[in-house]
TrEMBL record:
GO molecular function, one term: metal ion binding
GO BP term, pick one: molybdate ion transport
Binding positions (molybdate): S47, S74, A160, Y205
Protein known as: Molybdate transport system substrate-binding protein
Cross-referenced CDD domains: PBP2_EcModA
Key word RNA-binding present: no
Annotated source species: Ancylobacter aquaticus
Length: 268
């Protein structure tokens, strides 16, 4: 028969060192030391990229804890959650996709907060920019010329594109402009098309335009022409633990709000 020492070695070998130490010490397997290693992953709308990265750095400086981010269109992130992608927090660029994850029982409605908003703007490459007034009398076809295109998010799924379609419809221009729309996978992707001069104009968020190079805001869409641009945040189901809750609260605290304001978000 094997000795007691060799039996213990063979029994303990498959387990992680932290678990083994906890067991030998007579404590619970899920120790605080193991939990402290958890790093929350935040799924966030692409337009939050710069602000959230800054907030993540501030959080690291303040607490010593890391946070991981995945940025994309809210629609893509919601579908990734539905497919089982691991995340702790979802920050959407509109209410629709947060409602979607709630309906699918993917996020916790009780944790929902909407701390910031944004505005929708028309942009052009800086070297061709010309100020315009957006109202029902604006001649979009004359503005675009023979072959000008407008870049925005995909109008059936990406929040920026959904807002853009609503605004153009409200102004009586959607049917005229629809053939000229270039749908991109996110607001940031649409912005890039205008930055590179591959689109005559773009409809994006004001915060994205503010950090872009070689782009000028030529008009802001009237607030009443589209649903309010809002950013709801929720904790993902099954992830409401100490690490997640700490960063979730930080996202709506005074230091985070200062970052949002710096980037031009409307802080509520």
């Amino acid at each position: 028969m094997p000795s007691r020492r060799s039996f213990l070695r063979s029994f303990l070998r498959p387990f992680p060192a932290a678990v083994v130490l906890a067991a030998l010490a007579g404590g619970p397997l899920a120790t605080g030391a193991v939990q402290a290693q958890e790093t929350p992953t935040v799924f966030a709308a692409a337009s939050l990229t710069n602000a959230f990265q800054d907030i993540g750095r501030l959080y690291k400086e303040k607490t010593g804890n890391d946070v991981a981010f995945s940025f994309a269109a809210s629609s893509a992130l919601a579908r990734q959650l539905e497919a089982g992608a691991p995340a702790a927090i979802f920050a959407s660029a509109d209410a629709k996709w947060m409602d979607y994850t709630e309906a699918k029982d993917l996020t916790l409605k009780a944790t929902r907060v909407t701390p910031i908003g944004n505005s929708l703007v028309l942009i052009m490459p800086a070297d061709t920019a010309k100020a315009v007034t957006l109202d029902p009398n604006f001649d979009w076809l004359a503005f675009l010329g023979a072959d000008g295109r407008i870049a925005t998010g995909l109008t059936d799924s990406v929040p920026a594109g959904i807002y853009a379609k609503a605004a153009l419809t409200s102004l009586g221009a959607w049917e005229k402009v629809r053939p000229r729309i270039v749908g991109a996978e996110s607001a940031r992707a649409a912005l890039a098309l205008v930055e590179r001069g591959e689109a005559f104009a773009g409809i994006v968020y004001s915060t994205d335009a503010a950090i872009a190079k070689n782009v000028t805001v030529v008009a802001t869409f009237p607030a009443g022409s589209h649903p309010s641009v809002e950013y709801p945040f929720e904790i993902v189901k099954g992830q409401d633990n100490t690490a997640t809750r700490a960063f979730f609260n930080f996202l709506t605290g005074p230091e985070a709000k200062a970052v949002y304001a710096k980037y031009g978000f409307v802080v509520k």
